[in-house]
Amino acid sequence: MADGLNDARAIRIAEIMTDFRNLQHYIAQIRVSPAPDEFYLQGYTLVRQCHAEAQAILNAPFDANTSPGESVEQQKTLLKAVLLDSSIRRFRCQRVYLRATAAMRWINSRGALLREEGASAEALQKVDESLQSELANITDEYVEYSLRSEDAQQGKWLHEDPGLAVIQQCLFE
């Protein structure tokens, strides 16, 4: 039965896809040039991983298993499928972005220490531990909270956004 919300769904999809596009742009702008002896250090490796993951998300095909039809109900079904797909892509990109920015903080902190005279192995180890701690805090729950709180703060329509359990189920299929 038609519920009159297809316009709201379409607007919500546009908002989510704008967020997704922005996240992709931010990730693509992250550039690092490690020295050869630093190339395989964890922060630099993580940045390369994040670039690859963001590209894979971008390249993943959309499969709605439905086609747009004439009826309002068919349109509703398609819009819900697109809303789910776009929400999952944005979720994955947000997680990648958070990891990439953690890596950049590691790179910047490490670089600042190395520019100082007498940077100790202990200080560098603390920077490494800080990165590991930050990465451990980037849980699915945190990613969802960061997205949902920003959306709510901006007054966006969230009534049909998939919850974390649905997103996780789709990610693990």
Describe the structure.
The protein has 173 residues and is an all-alpha fold. It has one domain (5-172). Helix content is 72%, strand content 0%.
What attributes does this structure have?
elongated, 173 residues, 0% strand
- Output the structural class: mainly alpha
Topology pattern, helix = H, strand = E? HHHHHH
- List low-confidence stretches: none
Helix fraction bin? over 70%
- Kindly provide the radius of gyration, computed on alpha-carbon positions and rounded to a whole number of angstroms: 20 Å
Distance between the termini: 29 Å
Number of strands: 0
User: Count of helical segments?
Assistant: 6
General shape = elongated
Determine the strand fraction and express it as a percent band: under 5%
Mean pLDDT, all residues: 94
The biggest sheet, with number of strands, parallel, antiparallel or mixed sense and barrel status, is: none
Number of domains in the coordinates? Answer: 1
**Oligomeric organization of the protein chains:** single chain
Concise synopsis of the structure shown:
Helix content is 72%, strand content 0%.
